[in-house]
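Side project, low priority. Logging it here so it doesn't get lost.
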Amino acid sequence: GIQSMQRFAIVLLLFAILWAISGLKEVEQKNKEGTKKVAKESQKESTEVKNLLKKPNLADIAPDKVKKLVQLKLGLKEAKAKAKAIGLGLSKAQPEEAKKLVQEKNEVKEKCLSLKQQIDNTKAQLKKLQDDFAFKCANPVSYTHLRAHETREDLVCRLLLEKKKI
């Protein structure tokens, strides 16, 4: 009687220990999965931050200025083609007609210079917008700000990391 009850108690104790060990293994497995998930999310966030730090697409932040730049470049291309055509016409023109062509060519050259200046100004404005936008997206935030947005998984990961340090 007593020995069989002791054996039964020992078997029950062994089952309880095995159950506790299996529960610990399950918890450990969930922690590993959670850590992997946090690591993946952290890597994803790191990639997103790197992408933010890259200069943004100008068409997204200043479409009107990009459109203006394209129009200016097209205008310059047309003006250059016109200047070239006038130059070709000059070689075959009579003296009276040549004077008019020279005057017209000078006007086109001035237009080209003006367009080049406008293009340079627009490019400078776009570069400034792009740099300002990238700077605004890359400003550091405080530890308190980060903690305010901490998820449950982040908290577990942070506490595990702090525990390892101790």
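Brief comment: Helices lie at 2-53, 58-61, 63-92, 95-137, 143-148, 152-165.
Revisit when time allows.
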